[in-house]
Amino acid sequence: MATRITSINQDRQVLEWIKLKITQLIREQNTTQQQIDSLKAATNAVQREIEQIPKERFQLNIPSLVFDDNFILIGNKQSNFNLHSIVKSLYLTKDISTDSSIVMAANAKYFLISQKSYLYLYDKKLYLIKEIPWEHGCIWDMCMSNTLSKFILTAKKGIITLDEQTMIVEEIKSLPVNDRSWYCCACSNKSLFLATQNLNTTIYEYSIMEKNFSFRRKQLCCSSDEYIEHMKCTNDCLALIILNDTKNERHLDIRSTLTFDQLWTISLNIHEQTNIVSCCSLNENGWLIVDVAETRLIHVTNQGYIKNTITYTPSPHYAVQFDNDTLAILTEQGINLHRIDSDGEFRL
Hints:
Blueprint: H1 2-28, H2 33-51, E1 90-95, E2 104-106, E3 111-115, E4 118-122, E5 128-133, E6 139-145, E7 150-155, E8 158-163, E9 169-171, E10 182-187, E11 191-196, E12 202-208, E13 213-220, E14 226-233, E15 237-244, E16 249-256, E17 262-267, E18 277-281, E19 287-291, E20 296-300, E21 306-311, E22 316-322, E23 326-331, E24 334-340, E25 346-347
Antiparallel strand pairs: 1-24, 2-3, 3-4, 4-5, 6-7, 7-8, 8-9, 10-11, 11-12, 12-13, 14-15, 15-16, 16-17, 18-19, 19-20, 20-21, 22-23, 23-24, 24-25
Helix pairs in contact: 1-2
């Protein structure tokens, strides 16, 4: 009985989230297909939970959901995001040693990268702002927690936070390595998602608190011959690059951060097993895949199809979108910045 009540309470929380999200989308009037898919996945998950509740007599008090006339406006405007223009869009570059740099993270002010045994913060003009020694081993991944105002790094010696203001590095004691070697990390406003690089990968979700992380749930997302190679997050969606170790095939899997339900999946046609493949969110313009072995960028729309693929030189290692108007690409030679106009196109 207690378990059933807990499940009902969780469903009530999800329904409340859906209601608040719809209210927000009505107010902003800037709904994307990805947001609609996330709401549909959350609603379907609650429906499945309710259908599994034993048929007993109980009363449900569900307030009416009122839609105004402006809830859904379907226009003819399409995204003008053109990946081919990226070749001409370079407006700023900085040559740095990137031999040991395979990942990068950004917040509203800075880029964070690792170079040999140091962490470096660069601003939007690629000026070096701060640097500190790094003593926690190889860095596998990094992300930004806006809730904590800190960068989070998964490294050989554990999960580490970095405060951009003080440059204080702290190990998260509540997330010890123990028998797990954390590899991928991603943050939403409320949660930290972690995964290992083991076959049959399970994602662990931790609620972000002021000074701690509380385990919330876990979800198996791969088959016995698959593992998560990379993971990124928006507030509504979790993007997973999954490698099939038997077939040497990769696919991009988009899941709801609320329910872990799969929204869509697509093959990336990347078959080199010895490779580094990552992705970054382009917000309403979809996702950008970085294929190191083939030195190329792949643009995947929010509807789940590949729109463009281009060769990029020098060889790209990683990419992040900085604010809404800049795409930063970490290459084998340094950092390249590309400007994105308000219409979604890259410009020189």
